[in-house]
Amino acid sequence: MSLLSLANKRLNPLTYALGLLPNSGRLLMLGLAGVVSLLLVLFLGSALTTLEERVGDLGWTLNAEDSLEQRITVVAIDEKSLAEVGPWPWSRSQMANLVSAIDSAGAQIQLHDIVYAEARPGDEAFLAALQSAKGAVLAQVPALQSDQSVRAGLLTHPLSSISCNPAATGMQFISTQSFVAPNAGLASIPKGHITPIVASDGGIRKVPAFICVDDRPYPALALSALLQATLSENWGATVSAGESLLGPAQILRLESYPGLDIPLDAEGNMRISYSSLPSNYRAISAVDLLNGSVEPGILENTWALVGVTAFGQGDIVPTPFSGATPGVELQARILGSLLDVNMPYTPRAANGLLGFLSLIFAVLLFGLASAQGRWSAYGLPAASVAFPLVALALHIQLLGGAAIWLGWVFPALYSLFAAGLLLLLEQSRIRSEHGRVFANLNSYLPRDVAKEIAFNLPSSSINAKRCDVTLLSADLRNFSAFGEARPPEESAALLHVFFVRATEIVEAHGGQIQEFKGDSLLAVWEGDHSNSAQRAIQAAKAMQVSIDKELLPQHPPAGLEPLALGIGIEQGPVLRGSIGPAHRRSHTMLGDSVAITLRIQEMTAELAQPVLIGECAARHLRDHKLESQGSYLLKGLITPHTLFALPFTASSGRDKSKQPKLKVVAGSGRQATK
Questions:
Q1: How far apart are CA 153 and CA 140, in angstroms?
Q2: Among 154, 160, 322, 347, which residue's CB has the most CB atoms within a 10 Å radius?
Q3: Mean pLDDT of 209-221
């Protein structure tokens, strides 16, 4: 084996697996699928995460809730409001009027998804309106993706009892040194951040529960609203690691809101729930509220979210429901999930659960591959489609039913690659086995016959066809006596050498072995033309030199005639094919051409000629100056046949002067001398 082939065998997992026991090879393919899946997740993590998120959102969008959210109302500064009141931003006096209108309409608390960074005329009236309202929270924006340090306004109302120092807590929270906050004149009004986590595809799926600025944690707008609603000045909170494998990575608890466990991921983010249809969130136009033209009681005991929804104002984000959704809707979704105590999260053991699911897929795929037959042929392709769908369906079910974001990409990838590699292995194994079967058949039968048997079902009918061929029959004369006098191992070795060398010669001259029978063989060349006859006679000459003169023992045991090679050649039509019952077929070649060739070969001993040629083949061998041996009534036949021999040469080793002169004796199958 060459170094290149050895290296290819070792480096090609499929070739290596085919050399193992079947189950060992399947285990190797399952392990290889795991390695490939891990590498894809490692190097294509961003793209696969985007795919997982977008398709995984089907757990919400396929069965989204359609009940109206009555606790939260969006006060929209929309196109209608801008058309009547004027372009954005409005004056602080106008915003004071809006705050008062919201409060007068009965809202319990109002959340402004707007940052009032600059000090402007009318701030005093605006501040007074906010302070007189039942409850109000303003927005501030810590900048997470800013390339420049921006510090505008004044950040206020951080959480207490939470340390942003990783060395002290052992936890890493999101932090920044840049922010845009309301101006210092509004410092007394509670605030919360509205900074989302923007994914690589532009989607917004997570919001930090709090962001550390100057080592102080500032909560999200929805959390600030919850704290403000308690009317408590205690903004203490704690973050602890998840308490169970099926629980979140971290849990945020508010001291003034007992019983509320807010699930966070390892970075301290809350996942936004898209379980409700956008139409569930009731919205009223700000100008209608200012004009007093809204339905009475529409804001009674509700939480009002004030935000700019007018197109072109920049507060537009993509969601699973729409590519252009007002940002204020995200705040409504977060707030609704908090009020429902139903925040979606990823379990701490998510990777382990996905690995366990992949293991289940591996066991099932191993069983399908081991079953072989139709289970393997049809089951593995079906599993490559079904198992990824099962992984996705499980994710969708957990998300829709328990607000658990498990994920699905890794087991889907693994099952796809594992099924594909196992199918490739099984098909390669079957192909290899078919190749071995064909090779074994071809060692007993001609190639075209072996191919027909290997790729067709047997039948009980005659499957044969007529064709014109050139035949060569070669026989070891005196082999029976030799076999009687010598051990069978020696006879078998001699016969093996004869068959091997004769086959090499026949195939080198374009022929093929039809059959080995006893101590003789029958070779065939397609066609009964000059070319096939020339090839047959050349093969006969090569056999005489290579076998008769070189391989056969030159000094036989005492009392035994020397071994010699007799060859007969003839052309003619034959019937070639398979006969017999379907469970025990026999490949054969029938016709008088076969019988004539065999009888011609038998005559070589009686005529003391190593090679005899029938009259049909002799017509195409005139350039060989054949010598006629006379006409003979061959054994078992009724028509005389003229036989020809190769001319005498010094290398032939026979004395022409001692050759008998023969003639046909009428009525007898025997020849006589004169």
A1: 9
A2: 347
A3: 94
